[in-house]
Amino acid sequence: MQVLLLGGHGKVALHLTPLLLNRAWNVTSVVRNPDHENEILALGKGRKGKLDVLLSSLEDVKSTTDAQKILDTVSPDYVVWSAGAGGKGGPASTIAIDQDAAKHFLTASFASSRVSKFLMVSYMGSRRTQPSWMPDDQWAGLVRTNTEVLPTYAKAKLEADEYMTALAARRKRDPAASARSFQAINLRPGILTDEPATRNVELGKTPRGRGHVSREDVAIVADQLLARADTEGWYDLVNGDLPVEQAVERVAKEKIDAVEGEDVDGLVKRFFP
């Protein structure tokens, strides 16, 4: 398998890269800064898969055509979005990358005859409606982050997530498109930490809206979600008590989807009137 990893120098992506390579998958890691190329290539030493670096700025992806050019260069089977402006460059950069470039890659990937999986690393607060399983105080914390702490980021991520959800729902309703398998996976971690992996998580729906999760555990979960043919939808993620393997097995078998409570029909009508 060929994986296109967007945002390859991000902390989650740096943990994820060797995991994907260990599956004997080939990875093309997209980074903006040439100074990071050697650091990333070092992750491929001794691995089963082949690692390449593609130097490209996601802020320059201004259209679906721009995204398509990168897909044409890499010819991926799977696309992983682990990119973000990271607060650098101000609100304009956040909108350009976290929202606009993400949507362009989603459009190109869903239209591709080769791409069969798209995993988006988002965040748990990226939703409009308080989920039924989350207490008021936990939801209030997420709302405060969205409105007071990181409003531009929250807006950009929500737009990209909702667009992805609408694309996936529309595809399922189209007999011609749904005849070919496509997994749209939205992985939504809580507050990220740089602690070592615990390999114990709470995945799918969690009442702990302000829960923490290590970036390494996010990467481990992403790797395992990508390795299965039965994962799709929204998966909230915090560190918890269940071993990763069991948590992933549970959400897949029980078809757990944290998009529950959101107006998916409304999203399809909004994006594809």
Automatic annotation (TrEMBL):
Any Pfam family hit: NAD_binding_10
Domain NAD(P)-binding: 7-227
InterPro entries cross-referenced by the UniProt entry: NAD(P)-bd_dom, NAD(P)-bd_dom_sf
Gene3D superfamilies assigned to the protein according to its UniProt record, in alphabetical order: NAD(P)-binding Rossmann-like Domain
Domain of life according to the entry: Eukaryota
Family, per entry: Belongs to the avfA family.
Protein name: NAD(P)-binding domain-containing protein
